[in-house]
Automatic annotation (TrEMBL), chain B:
It comes from the Bacteria. SUPFAM superfamilies: ATPase domain of HSP90 chaperone/DNA topoisomerase II/histidine kinase. It comes from Streptomyces cylindrosporus. Gene3D superfamilies: Histidine kinase-like ATPase, C-terminal domain (3.30.565.10). Residues 18-133 form the Histidine kinase/HSP90-like ATPase domain. Signal peptide: none annotated. This is Anti-sigma regulatory factor. Pfam families: HATPase_c_2. InterPro entries: HATPase_C_sf, HATPase_dom.
Length: 298, 148
């Protein structure tokens, strides 16, 4: 970039910045009717205009800051939250990220038109420079909106993941001294940590002598899942409780054998009912055998 | 018999725990679509889970290529796990049950070999590792390929 180029660019930046400040009201009025704002601020148009003014101000500041291409420019910080809200409520309304990007792109033509009208010679070099710069900063704005929308999505996912961790691992008291954890889904390291902690706490709280880990809802047991199970069993044992792993389906049993996992030290049962019966019997509680006269209507 | 391989049906990145569960889901879906029975689906998914975790933990990440196969009689699934990690210095040792360099049970590689019908390792120390496994539809009993 030659010295002259830099100079032109600076003047262009100053021009566009001055234009944004001067025509703030007009731009905001036009933008307020664009789908991005109109569909979000349905109650009051004034609110939409205010929001648009905020964005115009931010763009002017970005230009003053001299970094029109930088999506991390601190000048965007003031509108980031608001744009995030706008994008999020568009997304809730069913708009795809591509549509939101299009909505932001639709803000460019009206403001470019206004800018061109400022020049005596709209096809001149100076006008061209200014419009180009405006396009650049509008492109950056589009990226800022997308980035804000995506990071809001990530936050949501992270929160849901955390909630799932808590929700998916209830410890149930089945009988005096017998607790059970029905495991559902894949047992990754984070889940198994939560399971182990809540199970050990329950063993203390309920003074449980038997803990049943039911894996009926676990789609797959690989060596890591098995290792997590074995560790949980070992920890429960240290607390003085005997662990029973139940809900081992035929496909899982075959896989465990092929993998070569040794569950020899663990009491296993095919169903939760069998595991409960085992624990009750070990506690000396006799349950009448399922009635022999169970007749199925034919 | 020469297996006719169709173009790669999917290529999945392996770079995080979330990718592992995506690999499991896609492999289960593919195995279901191919008409594999429940037991075999579980075996294939488990093997994929082991190998994908190896790619992530030992290979530092990589990708899985999934190809559906058809030899005219049966359908099958080929999975290739590719990484550019440190490679395996002693493949025999790595395949030994109970040998681990990552704090696990040391059953992943050998277990995956037992779960699948075809298993090859291509590794160069310092260059990376590619583990390729195949599973075939098990309707009519057929001659076993290689050692189980």
């Amino acid at each position: 970039m030659t010295e002259q180029d830099t100079a032109t660019r600076e003047t262009a930046a100053q021009l566009v910045e001055a234009f944004l400040k001067q025509r703030r009201e007009q731009i905001a009025q036009r933008w307020a009717d664009a789908p991005l704002f109109r569909t979000v601020f349905t109650v009051s148009r004034d609110e939409a205009v205010e929001a648009c003014k905020g964005v115009v101000d931010a763009l002017a500041e970005v230009l003053a800051g001299g970094r029109p291409e930088d999506i991390t420019a601190p000048e965007f910080a003031t509108v980031r939250e608001q744009l995030g809200h706008v994008a999020a409520s568009r997304a809730r309304g069913g708009a795809t990220p591509a549509q939101i990007a299009d909505d932001v792109a639709a803000l460019r033509p009206p403001v470019t038109e206004l800018l061109r009208a400022e020049f005596a010679d709209p096809s001149g070099v100076q006008a061209g420079e200014a419009v180009l710069l405006l396009s650049v900063v509008m492109g950056t704005l589009r990226l800022v909106v997308m980035e804000t929308a995506l990071s809001a999505g990530e936050e949501l996912m992270e929160r849901q993941r955390q909630q799932l961790l808590e929700v998916a691992t209830p410890v149930i008291q089945l009988w005096d001294g017998i607790v059970a954890v029905p495991l559902i889904g894949t047992l990754d390291s984070a889940r198994s940590q939560v399971v182990m902690e809540s199970l050990l706490e329950a063993i203390v709280d309920q003074r449980a002598a038997y803990a049943i880990l039911d894996i009926t809802g676990v789609p797959m047991v690989d060596s890591l899942v098995a290792q997590h199970l074995l560790k949980t069993v070992a920890a429960a044992r240290l607390m003085g409780a005997e662990c029973i792993v139940s809900g081992i389906r035929p496909a899982i049993a075959q896989t465990i054998v092929h993998l070569g996992i040794d569950l020899g030290t663990v009491v296993t049962r095919s169903s939760l009912a069998d595991a409960l019966a085992y624990a009750l019997a070990r506690q000396g509680i006799a349950i009448p055998a399922p009635s022999a006269s169970r007749v199925s209507p034919s | 018999m020469e297996a006719v391989s169709r173009p790669v049906t999917a290529e999945l990145p392996i770079g995080s725990d979330a990718d592992l569960s995506r690999v499991r889901q896609r492999v289960r879906q593919a195995a279901t679509d191919l008409g594999f029975g429940l037991a075999q689906q579980t075996k294939v998914v488990t093997a994929a889970s082991e190998l994908a975790r190896n790619t992530l933990v030992h290979g530092g990440g990589g990708l899985m290529e999934m190809t559906s196969l058809d030899d005219g009689h049966r359908r099958g699934l080929r999975l290739s796990f590719v990484d550019h990690g440190p490679g395996i210095r002693d493949v025999e040792l790595a395949l030994t049950d109970g040998y681990t360099s990552g704090g696990g049970l040391g059953l992943g590689l050998g277990g995956a070999r037992r779960l699948m019908q075809h298993f090859t390792i291509d590794t160069t120390p310092g260059q990376g590792t590619t583990v390729t496994v195949e599973a075939w539809e098990q309707g009519v009993p057929t001659a076993r390929r290689g050692t189980p």
